[in-house]
Automatic annotation (TrEMBL):
Signal peptide: none annotated. This is Iron-sulfur cluster carrier protein. Gene3D superfamilies: Fe-S cluster assembly (FSCA), P-loop containing nucleotide triphosphate hydrolases. It holds the Pfam family ParA. InterPro entries: FSCA_dom_sf, MIP18-like, Mrp-like_CS, Mrp/NBP35_ATP-bd, NUBPL-like, P-loop_NTPase, YlxH/NBP35. GO terms for molecular function: 4 iron, 4 sulfur cluster binding; ATP binding; ATP hydrolysis activity; ATP-dependent FeS chaperone activity; metal ion binding. Homodimer. CDD domains: Mrp_NBP35. One of its GO terms (biological process) is iron-sulfur cluster assembly. Binds and transfers iron-sulfur (Fe-S) clusters to target apoproteins. Can hydrolyze ATP. Belongs to the Mrp/NBP35 ATP-binding proteins family. Keywords: ATP-binding, Hydrolase, Iron, Iron-sulfur, Metal-binding, Nucleotide-binding. Residues 10-83 form the MIP18 family-like domain.
């Protein structure tokens, strides 16, 4: 039976649907381009087509309930029908860009300079050489003349003080009339460039650090992001704690403009674990810029190659998550020795591992995450159309 009141127009329906927010993507379904079609019949039956990012999206039931209850309240709507569709890979990647952009817009203010490239170095589990990769890339980038911040977010398992050979206590002081004292990073000159390093290791010794376990963890990372008097930086490398827990998600929320570099070993088992880090990156909309395989084949003095930890793990992970394999650092005693001496091998070493670290830094600086220029607008590839849509949503 036709309703007494005239059915809504298509525009009416669309504006009601702007109230339906995809909880995971953090924006409404219209702005996200999830509603390609709305048909309103003369009898007041409204048929809405909704495209999900993936067919089996777990939020489908929530979205359905929300659409039905909102439209059901609208005068002139006799019934609501939903037809489900699935996005094409291109549509999905557009939606992810939009969600990433929204997350950036809504992120809380941090003290990290807005014009520096933030790269979080992550792995699914400990011991794969994540900290070694962070330290070596930091010195290799600084040796090219960049100002490189290093944030040791491995709060209780910190290793940057030892790896970078810095032991000074960090001071806190009022900077530029700031209300609260700010943490002053420890600095180290590397050739024409400079490192600025922040680590709990500069606040406590290794035995005290254990007491922090679980306690102030997320808070400590938050403080490192908001209360540090960073200088001008071209890069900020974050040594992430191993795993994919709260601290990682917290960091992603606080610094959604970070991109992620994933470290794995040639072992297939490590590759599966590292994939979890990639999944976490995807859930928090952080783009994965590449995979570094560490502890790749060891080459002995006689030139024989030994794949001690197997092979193919880096390549397999890169293929699985559709990111480039940007380097394979061999297992080499010089890497461990450099770590122990506080002089990362990439500082001036002449072996294959040092050369590979420098090559990865070069790829990052020239191709993958070149330093930002003043005119760069960091929109993560958002198309103008999607930006308009999102802006319109914010205006509403
Ligand atoms: N390419 C390499 N060749 C030889 N030794 C290496 C190499 N990479 C790392 N190591 C050694 O392996 C050990 C683990 O490395 P590292 O501490 O960087 O791993 P991690 O993933 O950061 O671990 P954690 O998450 O526990 O901090 C260290 O003793 C380090 O010196």
């Amino acid at each position: 039976m036709a309703p007494d009141v005239a059915p809504p127009t298509r525009d009416d329906v669309m504006s009601v649907l702007r109230g339906v927010v995809d909880p995971e993507l953090g924006a409404d379904v219209v702005s996200l381009g999830m509603v390609p079609d709305v048909v309103v019949a003369d009898d007041g039956v409204v048929t809405v087509t909704i495209k999900l990012t993936i067919g089996g999206c777990p939020l489908r039931a929530d979205i359905k309930k929300d659409v039905e209850s909102r439209l059901g309240l609208h005068p002139g709507v006799a019934d609501v029908r939903i037809e489900w569709g699935e996005m094409t890979p291109e549509e999905r990647s557009n939606v992810m860009s939009t969600a990433r952009w929204i997350a950036r817009e809504r992120a809380p203010h941090t003290a990290v300079p807005t014009d520096c490239q933030v790269v979080a170095v992550a792995s699914g589990k400990g011991g794969v050489g994540k900290s070694s990769v962070t330290a070596n890339l930091a010195v290799a980038l600084a040796a090219r003349g960049f100002r490189v911040g290093v944030l040791d977010a491995d709060i209780w398992g910190f290793s940057m003080p030892r790896l970078l050979g810095i032991s000074d206590r960090m001071e806190a002081e009022r900077v530029d009339g700031s209300e609260k004292p700010k943490i002053i990073p420890n600095k180290k000159q590397i050739g024409p460039g400079e490192l600025e390093v922040v680590s709990t290791g500069f606040l406590v010794d290794e035995s005290t650090a254990l007491m922090w376990r679980g306690l102030m963890l997320t808070k400590a990372v938050e403080q490192f992001l908001s209360d540090v008097a960073w200088g001008e930086l071209d890069y900020l490398l974050i040594d992430m704690p191993p795993g994919t827990g709260d601290v990682q998600m917290g960091l992603a929320r606080l610094l959604p403009r970070a991109s992620m570099l994933i470290v794995t070993t040639p072992a297939r088992a490590a590759q599966k674990v590292a994939q979890r880090a990639a999944d976490m990156a995807a859930r928090s909309f952080l783009p994965v810029i590449g995979v570094v395989e560490n502890m790749s084949a060891f080459v002995c003095d006689h030139g024989e190659t030994y794949a001690l930890f197997g092979d193919g793990g880096g390549e397999a992970l890169a293929t699985a998550i559709d990111a480039p394999l940007i380097g394979q650092v061999p297992l080499e005693p010089a890497v461990a020795a450099g770590n122990d001496d506080g002089v990362p091998v990439a500082t001036g070493g002449d072996g294959a591992a040092a050369a590979e670290f420098r090559a990865i830094a070069e790829r990052l600086a020239t191709e993958i995450v070149p330093p930002k220029t003043d005119t760069d607008v960091d929109m993560a590839g958002c198309s103008a159309r999607l930006l308009d849509a999102v802006n319109a949503a914010f205006d509403d």
